[in-house]
């Protein structure tokens, strides 16, 4: 910025920096100066980038302190194993076996004990199988003459590596033994090609296995004993958080449509369901790791993790429905206000019943305790669906004649208005809303079924019985004193 | 099965095997026999399992021969590198550097050149950075006395390992440098803890880097030169296949609703869209690897792979809509036949326009050539949406009053029907269908926009101009000779 208040003798560029200082730019300083300035600019940009990166990292750390703990655990494990081998150089430096312990820790230590165990067990099995096979092939090759030896070795490596690589494409192998197969290929190639005699090999194998065992057991111990982040528990939490997110989204969506006021607040809540849409990959991997975890907390060794995947799938199916519902009610065609008012209460009642069911299911999953009210709530929701359909059928034939009970089309007074009965296009958005809510309710029932199945398989505790078990859901809801349905009766 | 035709002297169990032989079960043969039978049963089961596994593998191989080729490539690369080091034992066996070449090949060789390059470059950068840093720390530690040395080493390993592990949680690092960070941690620990002098270390580093370079370049060459499976091309194919799947699903869904006949055939087609729902993870990883690939085939180095992700997202959003549509029209409440007939033609016209657009987009992406008709087709689709809404508005007020010329429901004889005007509940499924189709059409327009953006960014070829460019989509469709819309006009 050119400074105007102090008239300079010659043309001069000055930069005003926000902190009050100002700096004169000297045009005469030539190439070196310009390079220096360019470098300084680059450096500034670089520092800014690093600064932003650190800020992002800090946000992650604040949001999920578990991740920081995991990092510290990795640091501790690695320091221990490094120093152990540094202090006791029984083996010969990096080239020797110490390397294998360090490598094991680096490669095997994962975020969750399940993943760590999966890798350790896979590594052990893969190394053992490949080692034995490699020693066998090595023995055969070394006893079949100098000419045949490389041919046998080459062919065996080619065949086994190809076959093992292919097996990684088979889904069942991929899910459980992917890492083991990689280790198998690695170990087999190393052992069969090595120039050692079989006696030496067995000695080396013994040393190496014991080193790997030390590294692996250190990893397992540290990952399980200090602030473990169990994959199973993460999956469990993910599922009940997703249930809550759906409940919020459904509430926000319907309330937002009918009130138009709570835009800011409900929008944020509603965004939650979007993460449900894409949660499949995370659920699959967590369920895969959870299978390897020992009993911990409230989960037994054979906890039905697969059922969580089914619950997850039904949640996603419901999320698709809410996504579409959201799209439809934000579309151009809008229903006239008086029709919206007519359905407002029933819709909100239905959505609140539906989201209450989701919340109850979330609590049931969270506490691992069967819900006493769930059947009853589903009955209420079915009743609300029926009410909603009735309300739609009894849509007012004109804006003011808000009739008491029966279904539409009496239309006796109005003759001046051009739309005597609401046109189909006016009903369209509401009809869609009703259909989608009905469909959502149906999918919520599916979720409830899957959660019930989960409760059965995982032996959820019986409900805390503060009142007698209401076992007749049925349609007799209007006899009860639920204010939601009473308002409609 | 007890044989009835030859009366036995004593009670005897016989098994008839389908190939005609029969076998007498001898009850007296005791424990050994039973164990033997049990073992044989287990063995049979085991063989059956293996057989099934092989069958599954065969199916995969037949369905995707590319995977088999990849496996053979891994086998070849591994055999070459193994034999190379076996034939020229310049280094000292397995413990030495040959190991690093084999390990590099096993760990780095991936399905696509992009993934292989990603791992190679990451490995190189990670090794180099960590190596230099490790040598530095090692030098400092070894010059600071016997007491301080382990402390400095331990702290530096702890700090760097923790920080590096944490950086893997930052999304931008995770996407590009995840593997490099692992290698960084590994190399740094190995180098800094090693008991070698700095001179030795540099020597070792030189040898090791050259070995790794040989392994890595072998992998890159083999994966790029022989039947490469480019990640970018896979992503490209996935996107246009998904476009086709959505087109089929939409067609099948609407046609299935109105005709009820093509259940078997259309069901299979419709299942396709389900894979679109969960394609996010695959798309993300392929786009991540595609970034590393050099120019190949029709794709430049800076091909806009990120735009493919946006197209994929819009495809998924449309797939959610179709999923819900599918759920809604399969629900219990069904519209009466005469109303369905009234809307049948317009709905099918709209869905065929919509699916034609999807197919055109698929062809445009596939051939990387802008479509000349796409704007025109979108105009047609918008017109069809309008027609559909008109048709809904003009729903017959009673079953027989079917105006002049157009589609179905002539049925003029029956006059005793109880429903004069269709009730809202009867319209409900159709209204939903109309809304959902409208919403689907809107989302298809979004897809078209994203594909247009892709065409712009990726410099798609101009359309093959066999006729003049139709640049007025507008609503003048009825002037054209498209048979689809003419039937409605």
From TrEMBL, chains A, B:
Q: Which residues cross the membrane?
A: 93-109, 121-139, 151-170, 177-197, 209-231
Instruction: Enumerate the residue ranges of region (Disordered).
Output: 396-418, 459-489
Where does the protein principally reside?
membrane
Q: Where in the cell is it found?
A: Membrane
Q: How does it sit in the membrane?
A: Multi-pass membrane protein
Cite a GO CC annotation. Answer: membrane
Name the domain of life.
Eukaryota
Q: Name one GO biological process term.
A: malate transport
User: Could you confirm whether the keyword Ion transport appears in this record?
Assistant: yes
Keywords for this entry? Ion channel, Ion transport, Membrane, Transmembrane, Transmembrane helix, Transport
The Basic and acidic residues compositionally biased stretches are: 476-489
InterPro entries assigned to the protein according to its UniProt record, in alphabetical order: ALMT
Is Membrane a UniProt keyword of this protein?
Answer: yes
Family according to the record: Belongs to the aromatic acid exporter (TC 2.A.85) family.
Q: What is this protein called?
A: Aluminum-activated malate transporter 10
């Amino acid at each position: 910025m050119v400074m105007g208040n102090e008239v300079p003798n010659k043309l001069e560029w000055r930069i005003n920096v926000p902190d009050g200082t100002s700096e004169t730019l000297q045009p005469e300083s030539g190439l070196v100066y310009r390079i220096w300035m360019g470098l300084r600019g680059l450096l500034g940009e670089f520092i800014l980038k690093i600064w932003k990166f650190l800020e992002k990292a800090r946000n992650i750390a604040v949001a999920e302190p578990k991740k920081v703990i995991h990092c510290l655990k990795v640091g501790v494990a690695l320091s221990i194993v490094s120093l152990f081998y540094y202090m006791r150089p029984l083996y010969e430096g990096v080239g020797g076996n110490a390397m294998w312990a360090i490598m094991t820790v680096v490669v095997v230590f994962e975020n969750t004990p399940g993943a760590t165990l999966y890798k350790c067990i896979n590594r052990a099995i893969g190394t053992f199988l490949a080692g034995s096979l490699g020693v066998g092939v090595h023995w055969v090759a070394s006893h079949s003459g100098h000419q045949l030896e490389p041919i046998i070795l080459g062919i065996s490596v080619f065949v086994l590596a190809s076959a093992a690589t292919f097996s990684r494409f088979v889904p069942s192998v991929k899910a459980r033994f992917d890492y083991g197969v990689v280790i198998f290929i690695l170990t087999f190639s190393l052992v069969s090609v090595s120039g050692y005699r079989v006696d030496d090999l067995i000695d080396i194998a013994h040393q190496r296995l014991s080193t790997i065992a030390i590294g692996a057991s250190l990893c397992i111990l540290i990952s399980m004993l200090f602030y473990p982040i169990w994959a199973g528990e993460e999956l469990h939490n993910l599922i009940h958080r997703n249930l809550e997110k759906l409940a919020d989204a459904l509430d926000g969506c319907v309330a937002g449509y009918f009130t138009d006021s709570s835009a800011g607040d409900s929008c944020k809540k509603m965004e939650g369901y979007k993460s449900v849409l894409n949660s499949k990959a995370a659920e699959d991997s967590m369920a895969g790791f959870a299978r390897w975890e020992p009993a911990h907390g409230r989960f037994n060794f054979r906890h039905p993790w697969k059922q969580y995947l089914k619950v997850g799938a039904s949640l996603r199916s419901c999320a698709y429905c809410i996504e579409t519902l959201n799209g439809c009610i934000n579309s151009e065609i809008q229903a006239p206000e008086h029709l919206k008012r007519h359905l407002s209460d029933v819709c909100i009642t239905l959505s609140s019943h539906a989201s209450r069911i989701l919340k109850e299911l979330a609590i049931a999953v969270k506490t691992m305790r069967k819900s006493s009210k769930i059947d009853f709530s589903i009955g209420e929701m079915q009743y609300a669906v029926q009410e909603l359909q009735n309300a739609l059928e009894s849509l007012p034939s004109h804006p003011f004649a808000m009739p008491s009970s029966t279904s539409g089309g009496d239309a006796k007074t109005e003759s001046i208005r051009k739309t005597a009965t609401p046109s189909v296009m006016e009903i369209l958005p509401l009809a869609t809303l009703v259909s989608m809510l009905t469909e959502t309710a149906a999918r919520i029932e599916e979720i409830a079924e899957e959660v019930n199945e989960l409760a059965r398989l995982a032996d959820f505790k019986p409900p805390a019985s503060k009142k007698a078990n209401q076992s007749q859901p049925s349609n007799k809801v209007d006899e009860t004193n639920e204010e939601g349905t009473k308002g409609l009766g």
